[in-house]
Amino acid sequence: MKRIFVAALLTVSVIFSFVACSVEREVPPDIDFTSEVDINEIKRLYPSKSNVPVMYIELDRSLWAVNKEEYVNATITVPDCGIIEAEGGIKGRGNASWGLPQKPYNIKFSEKADMFGMGAAKKWVLITLFYDKTLLRNYLTLNLAKTVSAGPEMDCRFVEVFFNGEYNGLYLLTEKVEDDDERVDIKKKNGDVIFEIEQEYRHEYQCKNCISLRSGVHLTFKDPEPKDLSLNEMKKLHSSMQSFMNDVDQAIRSDDYEKYAEYIDVDSFVNWYIVNEFVKNFDSQFVTSCYCYVKNGKLYMGPCWDYDTCYGNQDVATCMDPKGYHVRNAPWFNYLMRNDEFFSLVCGRWQELVEDGVFDKMLENIDEQTEYLSSASANQFDRWRDSLKSTDLRGKKSLFTYNDELDYLKNWISGRVNWLNTKWAVQ
After folding, report:
1. What pTM, to 2 d.p., does this model score?
2. Which residues are within 8 A (CB) of 16 and not within 5 positions of it... i.e. 6 or more apart?
3. Which residues of 87-101 are buried (b: 16+ CB within 10 A; e: fewer)?
4. Domain boundaries, given as residue ranges, for the chain
5. For residues 387 and 290, is the Cβ–Cβ distance under 8 A?
6. What is the pLDDT of residues 329-382, one digit of tens each?
């Protein structure tokens, strides 16, 4: 009878707004649809008591049968976007996060869809919030990046997700890092490329289509991906990019501002560095999930991505301490931050942000979002009760209540701003 429900939804042609009600995780009873779907009946049977928009995903199999290798057919209903019904697919994503009880997913619509005004695109990402007991770290950092950067950054919205009628928790729906005029607008036909920077061990030192540089930077082709090109096309692209990136790498290591400014967009490097050093994200030391792209013969840093373990949420290296540098020790930035011109640009940009009240507004935003998510956060922790009990990231330094975690986050941010103010004061 559930298939009757899915088929009936396909007849809907009106756009409506979501009305919040109470959460039920049980699969709703079958509906005998004999004519046009009753939208109010859908809301009653697939409810949420929060203010957060809802995404209903109907699969042609169990959610546990979804893997990271291939898309599973899905029918996706997003009332608040005016998307009554859309055909698409869903598959798993992530590395460590794929092993979590609440898993992350990639979504691909059959046609472009504008999700919550973020721009029309086929591909979207559902980020799990299981690792982050505040539920806010990715949201805060992606929005900070949009404030700091003049380049493309990934937008995001909170959504509550139902799979096959069962509540699966609160997610952050984000844009996907890819070539798109609404996202990273490059021209692949001209040889432009989006790279992901990762350490070689993550590929077991077996990546044939990667670029390794003398500075220690290791680049993988993100868009286009090698599988999307013929052998000859990939060989040609790899050769041209290896040569260009060697020149970039040499220029950065030269300690000559005029020289490296010919190859890189300096402002994008300054802005990316400030965001990632501020949040003190372990992966941002060029471990993984660090993006850069080549456009019109220059290298740009960004967009920013993947921040569930930042703001002191991972007991590794010195990342829990709001004092001290971390990303400064990454390849490229260990050279750039020793350069007087680059360091002066970082200090000047930081002071602009402080004077504009960016970090004060961030603390205010934490309180605003906490209030906005009050019901949704309760739903999340009711659905995934082990989340608050987790010690995976911080061990004995973990906290176990939502309010304690929020206080920890705000205190960490305040401490980080204070420490960086002592280091990046304009001389």
Report:
1. 0.89
2. 39, 79, 82, 84
3. ebbbbbbbeebeebe
4. 2-175, 188-355
5. no
6. 999 999 999 999 999 999 999 999 999 999 999 999 999 999 999 999 999 999
